[in-house]
Amino acid sequence: THVSYLCDLNRHLVVCLWMALCCLWGGLSIPDPKYRETLMEMEASMQTGGQVVLSEKEKLLNSRLLQMKQEEVMRKDFPPAVHFFKARDLIEESPLFSLLQKVPKGAALHVHDFSMTDVKWLVKNVTYRPHLYMCSTDAQSIRFMFCSQMPKPLPRCSPWVLLEKLRAMTVNVTELDDRIMKNLTLFTELDPDVVYPTQDVVWERFEKAFRAVSDLVSYAPVFRDYYYQGLSELYADNVMYLELRTLLSEMYELDGRTHDLTWTLKTYQDVTRQFTADFPDFFGARIIFTIHRGVNSTVMDQVVKTAMKLKRDFPDFMAGFDLVGREDRGRPLWYFRNELSLPSDKGLPLPFYFHAGETSMSGSEVDQNLLDALLFNTSRIGHGFALLRHPVAKEFSRKRGVALEICPISNQVLKLVDDLRNHPGAVLMAEDHPLVISSDDPAMFGASGLSYDFYQAFVGFGGLRSNLGTLKALAINSIKYCSLPAQQQEKALAMWQKRWDKFISENTQ
Ligand SMILES: *[C@@H]1O[C@H](CO)[C@@H](O)[C@H](O)[C@H]1NC(C)=O
Ligand SMILES: *[C@@H]1O[C@H](CO)[C@@H](O)[C@H](O)[C@H]1NC(C)=O
Ligand SMILES: *[C@@H]1O[C@H](CO)[C@@H](O)[C@H](O)[C@H]1NC(C)=O
Ligand SMILES: *[C@@H]1O[C@H](CO)[C@@H](O)[C@H](O)[C@H]1NC(C)=O
Ligand SMILES: *[C@@H]1O[C@H](CO)[C@@H](O)[C@H](O)[C@H]1NC(C)=O
Ligand SMILES: [Zn+2]
Q1: Quick one: fold of 87-118+220-504?
Q2: Does 27 have pLDDT greater than 90?
Q3: What residue ranges do the domains of the chain occupy?
Q4: Residues with Cβ < 8 Å from 282, sequence gap 6 or more?
Q5: For FRET with 178, which of 122, 381, 452, 465 sits at 20 to 30 Å CA-CA?
Q6: What pTM does this model have?
Q7: Which tens digit of pLDDT belongs to each residue from 145-197?
Q8: Could you tell me which residue ranges the Adenosine deaminase domain spans (predicted)?
Q9: Is the CB of 45 under 6 A from ligand 1?
Q10: Dihedral of CA 325/329/330/333: which sign?
Q11: Residue 383 catalytic?
């Protein structure tokens, strides 16, 4: 007897397998091991990187890599199963992690402005600069301002104190610095599940920390250094290109003068040029202009028009537009359908890079964001955590090649998933859905660069079957799905390939 199997192998290919099941086994009903092998190979070839052909040297490194992963899985505290705040030290002592740091990872396509740079640097460098005032809010957070004189008091905040003076009067400065640092990040050495029992609590702290960092970073001289330092951290982690989501906040000077958002955009461009001049093997950066999704239609109308103008004036530096803030609390994309149609109506193209599906509220109005983002022709999807619950949106995103920007650690810290082996990325990587790995708000989560998130994707939801081909495909994806025009992508890819070859030869001695 013959059994026919119709396997809808990915996209277009339809593979039919005809196999004789029983006769080969002398009447026993054990399934044919050869057939079993064929199916296993088929599955392996469907995953992200499943089609990558490894060179001899790459195969050598791959066996080492898989050996290391095997050892990782045997660990008593398997890091992807543990909250990142407790797992970070475990990850750092892993030899596999050290190797992942060296991997040329391509581009970081989902990172936010005020959480791209290490908070230790903020405390040790920025808060030690002169003219910095600090106050403590009623809600146990802190605010800052650089000012040539005592600033006007803020509502619901203690009187301002000059930090320099406060430090001079403080017995234990280490402890003070520690308290300041804790206000600038979500990372904690305490039990994260006790400190952040719910999504509401963790998001509230997140927005407070973001606020405090923005006070420091919106001071024009700090802003330049902060961004340069952030690029250095990515570069040190072997990332070569960035698409940064930024609010383009007004920047201020010591005397209270402010600069508008065009100044901020230009400064990003200047510092990027400076950085690529200093490090020619860093490819560069572009920005995605963002607005908080809590605004009303009147404000959105203005902002979309501004975004269209910026895109026209800075076509090579500005990638597009996005909405930020907690999806579950903000307005859904459909609420802004009139404003978001403006670019298309007016024939002034403005590519979208919408956050969507960063929610566990299945079936809610906000849960429609995924489909709506696609209907508005989004170029990529930020997170797309809920994609598996939307088969139509999923098919749409695959067919149109709209990549998901998966940020594993962010999803865990913001309480969408506990054990990263259960992240939806496991399914999406198993079937080579268009996706890239990114870090969202590394400084808020106590991470930096992309390596920690690559670790979670590779060891956590990549499981034992993801391999060197997977890493290669993820890096290539990050260039393939970035906003650069085709010609520039080719250049970036050539630059990446050179770094990759060097990485392979240096690690197969
Ligand atoms: C702070 O950083 C700037 C630029 O990154 C550097 O020039 C300066 O020396 C640093 N200052 C301190 C106190 O570390
Ligand atoms: C200062 O505080 C830090 C952190 O809380 C602590 O480790 C250190 O022992 C303290 N130093 C002194 C001299 O009390
Ligand atoms: C933030 O700073 C304030 C004032 O120093 C302090 O009371 C509070 O404990 C800090 N918050 C955190 C989360 O450490
Ligand atoms: C929209 O928000 C802005 C800024 O918060 C406010 O000034 C304006 O009155 C609001 N407009 C409407 C129609 O609610
Ligand atoms: C999205 O793209 C389709 C096909 O190119 C086009 O017809 C439609 O007008 C676009 N919609 C928006 C909102 O840009
Ligand atoms: Zn984000």
Answers
A1: TIM Barrel (3.20.20)
A2: no
A3: 1-46, 87-118+220-504, 120-206
A4: 231, 235, 240, 241, 275, 276
A5: 452
A6: 0.94
A7: 999 999 999 999 999 999 999 999 999 999 999 999 999 999 999 999 999 99
A8: 198-491
A9: no
A10: positive
A11: yes
